[in-house]
Amino acid sequence: MDSSSDSLDHNSGVGKHHAQFEIGGLLIELCVSFWKSRSLFVAAKLDLAVHLLDGSKSVEVLAELVGANKESLFRLMRALSTIDIFEQVSPRVFANTPISHHLAVNRDIHAVIVSEGNDNNYRLWESFCDTVKSGKTNSVERVFGVPTMWMAMQADPKYEEDFKKSMTALTNFKVPHLAGLYDYSKFDTVVDIGGSEGILMAELLRRYPNIKKGINFDTPTVISNNKRRGLRHSDDERYHDVGGDFFEHVPEADCFVLKQILHDWNDQCCRDILQCLYRSLRPYGQICIYDSIVERESPVYGQACWVDLHMMQLIDGKERSEAEWRDLAESAGFKVDKLIANELVVLTKKHSLQ
Length: 354
What we know:
Elements: H1 3-31, H2 33-45, H3 48-51, E1 57-58, H4 59-66, H5 70-81, E2 87-90, E3 93-95, H6 98-105, H7 107-116, H8 119-124, H9 128-134, H10 139-144, H11 149-155, H12 157-179, E4 189-193, H13 199-207, E5 213-218, H14 220-228, E6 239-243, E7 253-259, H15 267-280, E8 281-290, H16 301-315, H17 322-331, E9 334-340, E10 344-349
Parallel strand pairs: 4-5, 4-7, 5-6, 7-8
Antiparallel strand pairs: 1-3, 2-3, 8-10, 9-10
Helix pairs in contact: 2-5, 4-5, 7-12, 11-12, 12-13
């Protein structure tokens, strides 16, 4: 009997078992990752990191400050400390780490976490299996009893407020980069479709003095709320706020900008929006669409794929590949003129609307 052969077989079996154990552990870790995301959300909602900006504190002091149970709070912070969110510097005493400090001082990131991690978003994913099986989502109706997310937000002011803060935060984060991806100096009139508070339009006017007129276009409710809240991000006389419906009519322009608008809608709705823009786009004008281009070679391919699932589940929207952008453009009377950095699609008119 060859003892060395037996030993090799044994070692091989142990190694295979260990590999399977690691794979199993990884799968379980992925499955329970929501424990971590929910814990991060609670830490952000309670603003624990802000209370540690002036130094470490005991759980007892923190519990008093945020109105929490001291034992539950200790267990939360202990768990978060294992992933470098907070540090337990002595028994039951915690301090900020670089990560939790960032959560405290970067209020844009804080706003995104509070919005994306809220209870409603978890409830909206409960029917995801049904969506995958049927190809249709009814998550909003199941959770809120209304057909669209926009109606749900109107019925829940706090939900809407958190969402808008999150969108503003993401815009603040991305606008300097996005505004520099394309040269808008050749356009006389630029309209930002679904521009919300007008942050992107303000940046475009600041960067491109050749633009003669910049219009921030959104629903009449959004525009009136901006005025009521005193939200105007530009004192430039070229800047204008206009309310309307991008399915019906938009102001005439040389360039329309859509930042993360079309991924909210299915193909038919996008076609209707683009055809509406077609009617108001001047000859030789362009449409600049800031949305993901889902291609495997993209450095943000993984992120785009996951955002696509979120769009599918919540609002019947989607992220699109290059081929899908080209098909959509063609169906609405446009052609793809440029694809830039996997996040900007530039359209021009074909000779006639098909």
